[in-house]
Structures are given as C-alpha cells and as structure tokens.
Amino acid sequence: MALPFKGGGAGRFNPRFNRQPEPEHRINERIRALQVRLVGENVTVGIYPIQEALKIAQQLELDLVEISPNADPPVCKAIDYKKFLYEKKRKEKDMKANAKQSEVKEVRFTPGTDDHDFDFKAKHAEKFLKEGNKVKAYVQFKGRAIMFKERGELVLLKFAERLAESGQPESLPKLEGKRMFLMLTPKTAKKKKEAE
C-alpha cells in the first residue's frame, strides 16, 4: 500500500539538491593564504601578498589558481582556469591511454605434449611476456592421465626454464582439480639491465 503524499515540501530549501559543485582548486578570492608564490606566463615569478597577486592576474585578464596548496607559501598560477582544467583532463586521458592494462594469457599443455608443439607455445608465451602480459601455463589431465602428475610438472618446469630470460614464475607448479598450472610474470626492463 502506497503512503499518502504529504505536501508542504515544495517551498522548502534542500541544500543537497541545490549545492554547487566545489571547484577542484581554490581560485581567485577563495585562496586563503596571505602570501603566495606566483608563477605563470608574462609574470615575474616571486612571492607576493595575495591582494597584489590577484591584481596582477586581473590585469592579465586571467584567474589566480592555487596549484600547490601544501607548499610554503602556496604556489599560485596566473592562467585561464577553464583552459587549465581542459589541459589537465587531456593529460590524464593521455596518461590513461598510455598505461597499458596487462592481461593474463593462457597456454595449455597435456602431459604428452610433443617438442614441436612445446616450442610453438613457448614462442607465443615469450611474445606475450615481452608485451608485458602475464602467462598462465597449465597442463590439462584427462581421465587416467592424472596418474602422470610428474610429467605435467616436468612440462611446466621445462617451460619456465625456457622462458627464464623474459619471464619468471610466481611460484612452483600447483595442482587444482585436473589442472596443474604455473603463473609467469614478465621481467621488467630494470631486471634485464641488471642481468647484463
């Protein structure tokens, strides 16, 4: 059963719905410091009283933006605030695009994987590791093949040894159900340089 609507709320002020979003940075009159270090284009860099810094920014028809509030004194830049936010968002977007997400690539073996198949899969895994992805290698045991766990472990250890230059195992091979797996992580450029 729906509750009856009680009127009288139409004229009431609710601060949650009328709240203006707080700017990301303190700008112009919102800056609380008494002195600031002023930076920016066409500005003499230095420490100024806040009123003088505001006056300089107004003369240049720019905003005074507090870019480093924790510095002593806070660092403020004379810049067009909307342009500043646009450039900041663009930089963040570029950084996000460049930060490649690493994936986990799977490579499957059987206890009786032949040499040709092993080499083929090892080459692919090496390529995955060089691209910065993790490799999950596993041996699938079917039926009674589970009796040959040692063969599966040997395949995975041989695989880890083969990829020692480009990847390193996170742990020893583990058996879960009818699968034995080994996770390899790519070696970073620093570690490669140390090895040389």
UniProtKB/TrEMBL annotation:
Residues 1-11 have a biased composition (Gly residues). Its main location: cytoplasm. It is found in: Cytoplasm. GO terms for molecular function: translation initiation factor activity. Residues 103-187 form the Translation initiation factor 3 C-terminal domain. Residues 1-23 are annotated as: Disordered. Residues 27-94 form the Translation initiation factor 3 N-terminal domain. It comes from the Bacteria. InterPro entries: T_IF-3_C_sf, T_IF-3_N_sf, Translation_initiation_fac_3, Translation_initiation_fac_3_C, Translation_initiation_fac_3_N. Keywords: Cytoplasm, Initiation factor, Protein biosynthesis. The keyword Flavoprotein does not apply. IF-3 binds to the 30S ribosomal subunit and shifts the equilibrium between 70S ribosomes and their 50S and 30S subunits in favor of the free subunits, thus enhancing the availability of 30S subunits on which protein synthesis initiation begins. Belongs to the IF-3 family. Monomer. PANTHER family: TRANSLATION INITIATION FACTOR IF-3, TRANSLATION INITIATION FACTOR IF-3, MITOCHONDRIAL. HAMAP family: IF_3. This is Translation initiation factor IF-3. It comes from Parasediminibacterium paludis.
